[in-house]
Amino acid sequence: MSDLDGKIAELQRKIQVELQCKKAGQMMRTQLRDRQAIAQCDQSIHDAQKRIEFLEAEMAKVAMRKQRRDTTSISISPSSSSSTASTISNSGDSTSMDTSCPKEALKSQ
């Protein structure tokens, strides 16, 4: 598995975690009666959705880089592919984001 495949797999895993947090928050919200608790829960759901959107955008960027790399390596002759492949950079990686789930959301599962 290539480095980019690993990043894509990691991003997919993080998205699944956030989806679980969001779902748990939504389930918990139906049980709440206190306005402050509901507002806190709504904020947690909103935050999880924002993290999901961010991670999906990051995954699209990484997939695009992977597609470009794969297309480039196919069109390059075998004698020059090693020198070209070593110049491809993975700069601008911003996949390290806090993906913590609210403890309250996890308790309701």
From TrEMBL:
Q: Where is the composition biased (Low complexity)?
A: 72-91
Tell me a GO biological process for this protein. Answer: signal transduction
Under the heading InterPro entries, the entry gives: HR1_rho-bd, HR1_rpt_sf
Its name, as the record gives it, is REM-1 domain-containing protein
Instruction: Tell me the domain of life.
Output: Eukaryota
Q: Where is this region: Disordered?
A: 64-109
Quote the Gene3D superfamilies the UniProt record gives. Answer: HR1 repeat
What is the source species?
A: Piptocephalis cylindrospora
> What region holds the REM-1 domain?
1-68
